[in-house]
Amino acid sequence: MASTTSSAARQRLTPDERRVLAGTLAGTTIEWYDFFVYAQAAGLVLAPLFLAPLSESSPGLATVVSLATIGISFLFRPLGAVLAGRFGDRLGRKRMLVLTLLLMGSATALIGLLPTYASIGVAAPVLLVLLRVLQGFSAGGEWGGAALMSVEHAPVGRRGLFGAYPQVGVPLGLILATAVLWVLTTSTTPAQFESWGWRVPFLLSVVLIAVGYVIRRSVEESPVFQDMLQRKRESATPLRDLFRRNTRGVLLSALIFVANNAAGYLVIVFFITYATGTLGMERPPVLLATVFASLGWFTFTLYGGALSDRIGRVRTFQVGYALMFVWLIPMFLLIETANVWLFGASIFVLTIGLGLSYGPMSAMYAEMFPTSVRYSGVSIGYALGAILGGAFAPTIAELLIRSTGTSVAVGVYVMVLCLISGAAVTIAGETRGNDLHVADEQDQPSGAGRTPRNP
Prior knowledge:
By secondary structure, the chain is mainly alpha-helical. It contains 23 helices and no strands. Mean pLDDT is 82; it is low at 1-10, 228-237 and 442-455.
């Protein structure tokens, strides 16, 4: 297997492979830009605009409720994952990728057009939550399709690297969203930003979605899925088959993701809100420091995918979670100094472990499930992990600080999740090199970490 891996690693990318990687990267970047624009706006400005009475009587509680609206969309990810997985396993990865992109973009643009509480009263937060539900539904189906398109097009020895491309759409989306907000907060007054400036990032989604649609339409369907169709092995009931034979894989994939997603949403939302709202730091330099930290997330996610092709998925995850575990307490102590340089540096160091525990995920998840239920398996596992990890992580962090009086409590909370995710990935076992062309569980040993069939 070592010689095959080495040979594959030296291969140049074909034009088709470049299109696949560009399509998955562009699509996930745009989708997560949409998601993160809302997440950051929720912490910065949406509370007084859509929860005006609560914001006036209790600003702190309004912030908690505003952050909680981030988590509401996560609750609908499993529904999006179930439907996208069902049709993605029957109709193909490409169609679902295009559909989820359009759904996410439409919901985001409509948020930018919403009247506020001052204009239409309680209907404003109700409509906002409904659009967040649509965003969550879309996100539930997005990741699985992008992950499978990249991994199923990859040579065996480069699945980790190929699978890291849709993963880096997360930090790139964060960089793009944060950079746009930084430009707006530095070029407008606070009154202008609250009046109309906050709408601009949401409306920009229309342009980004058009670009992503063109790129994704040019990508060919996954060869693994095409092979399954040619052999007419597709399942008419992928969801039922998934839970009859792969429940263990779904549960483990969810737990593997918990700590990474929780820490990721601290970077995306909580640190910005805490620094500007509690520590009194200026908004523009905090946003710029977050962009800087996100570059580390991007770099180490790509490196984590490539590293997992050399030392294995499990070992890469373990290293990532161990680094996060030992850094969490020192990180929060540095953040408490309210020094923007220490703030940016401390989050950057966190992204080393964050990237190493995110880069191998696409490849490992794809290798854990047979073809006929793979879209369903990876999407549902990812969605459940997001609910358990990141859905309410910013809200939990805010409540922990309010109840304990120290941000170190948040570090302890994420450390516990690191132990859970580290144990789950160890139990799942190594998947590197597993045969992706296996159509159903009858063709192979049960569970994750099965013996490779095509080294």
